[in-house]
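Why DNA internalization-related competence protein ComEC/Rec2? Reviewers of the renewal asked for a concrete example.
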Amino acid sequence: MGQGIAMPTALAALGGSLLAWWAGGQGGTWLLPLVLMMAGLSVGVWRPRALVWFLLGGSVAFSIQQEWGHRLPVGLSGQDIAVHAKVTDVQQQSGVQRLRLSIERCTAPAHLPRCDQLNSVRVSAYDHEYVVGERWQMTLRLRPPYGFINPNTFDYEQWLWREGIHATGYIRPDPAPQRLTHASPRLRQLASDFLAQLPLEARTQRWLAALTLGDSEQLNQDDWALLNATGTTHLVVISGLHVGLVASFVLLLGRYAARVVSPTNWRLRTWPWWLAGAAAVGYAVLAGLAPPAMRAMIMTLLGLWVLSGRHAPGPWQAWWLALALVLMVDPLALWRPGLWLSFMAVGWLIIIWQGRSRPRGVKGWCWALLRSQLLLAPLMAAAVLFAFGRVAPTAPLINLVAVPWVSSVMVPTALLGWLLSPLPLVGLVPWWVFEQALAVFHQLLVVAVEAAPLWQPPAHLAYPLAGSLVLLSLCWGLPAVPRWLRVGAAVLLVTIPWWPREQAIPPGQLQVTVYDVGQGQLIELRSANFRLLYDTGPRFRSGFMPLQSLWPPGQDFDQVMVSHADTDHAGGVDALLADHQVAQWWAPAEESLSIPSQRCEQGQRWQRDGITYRILWPPSGENTLSSNDRSCVLAVYAGEHSLLITGDVGRQVERQLLSQLNGNVSVLVAGHHGSGTSSGVQFVRETQPHHVVFSAGRDNAFRHPADDVVRRFRQQHSCLWNTAQDGALKFTLIPQQPVTFQPLRALAGGHKRC
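Here is what the prediction returned.
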């Protein structure tokens, strides 16, 4: 297939994907058919020959449009629906199973929207043990795909979209789920069970499952943290490296066999190439044909075609054709960073090796590998920095050792162990070698992380750093680039960390971020030389703490004030203790927290950077208040502006606070997430807050904020914000200037303005 066909095919598929995304984002299923119909008529009249590309792009667009149609209707959020479903994936976590279910039949209450189109959901299960392949009848409580929106953090909602998950939730214990059919034996599951019975270390079993079966879910959190911090994640996800190694190994054996069978014309034999292609397909199928494996299979098959030289396309034609095929088979791949990282890496390798002869001998191949890694590393580091906002400083050096070690030692011994596994004891020998190689590899990663941990550069340096990495890669990879430009690109990269720091917050100004942590509260206050956290966010039943995802480890906090010991306010204390440094803790004396803390009492006051902090509650001495009513109440003043955070205190305590407040409140974080037990009528009327923030979870079971509370604030013409709808909220208190809010979630019609 020539480039004249491959490139338009890929561009048509890409255009269809983007069109469907735009149409779906506009919120109507009618918009895409209308646009396609009008465009089709225009193309058919003016460019009849281009109609085939239009039809191709249209088919991809309709495939993506179906994803929008499969999403759970908003009217079913938080409602119980009955389903028949098949378990397609199970992830074990502490005390909970994360299930991926394929919905076969769905029934909603008669007065609610239908759920016939619901296809794939991700739910938590706490009661039964589930196995992939089983079919169950169960009741689910779901909500549309949704994730927290916080600065510089993983976009969970985007991940749900690109994974084709149409709702999230949990399995209701009542009525109890009923198993309809047991799981039929699967080769992958049988192989996993076989590995679990071997006399190998648990770490060896996990990594064997990831490298050979594509079961990367068996890797634990420590494994992933180590891989991410060293930039070696690509080595354990079934990718082009692994599928290519399997195909290359089979091709090598096949061509050797062909030389023995037909020594005079063995080069003309095609069956070794077909055998290598079959091995690539079989390995990808064994790995579950997950998106990375499927993408690697397509690219490997086209790579074999190019190398065979039999009516084959050129490298760039194959590149475009592979992109087109991946998008046609899996249109959602467009939103997967792995797609662009893979194709960028392959495209760059084509550029740097185009026109060069193939390496020969061991020395030639070693030099080729070294050159490829050195030229590829800066570009990949820039791509990861753009995509994830972080960079592994040791990744270029580690990959120089890790790639050949994994590809030439670990993967071959792992696969050889499977080939010899039917032989008693003999099959364990390759896996014992794998275990020793894994120990060396693991120790290498540990040393690298200790020497240079994962780095998240400051926001003002991220783009200059990524741009300089791209420039360095281009200058050294492209031919005929002057030496002075290559040296200059290297010097520029080295000097970036010493660029002027981000402009400090001027004295007298206070930057505030109310984080989106669901049904909980976590607020960060920063001035020129002071950093305070009010509350630490929730800890969910699964053990996840949203605080863990907000910053890289090693943060320093001058003070952390825990309003009270409820899990939605103090849930992240353990994460702070484990990953960060806190100079001083504040908490009510009667609260049972696992930290030595300064007792917060009414009347305490201090100043930092021209900002005044006052604790208005609880009163000093012993008291019999409830846990909510003894919450630490903090008032902060920056010039004429004031910020009031009341924790979970109720209306009676609020009335006692009024005597300590002077004038209207600029920003109020509503008490108890907007519960009807707080924000009483007198308190709202006398404080008359200009802005009110509700820190609440989307579709929370408590229905916070309460309708009566919202009406009270609206009667005072307060501007209302809700983390459930707006994501994290950032604002700055600047004397003599109005308070302006920056919501991180873009709403239909633009941001609110008050």
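Confidence is low (pLDDT under 50) at residues 26-32. This is the kind of structural detail the renewal will allow us to pursue systematically.
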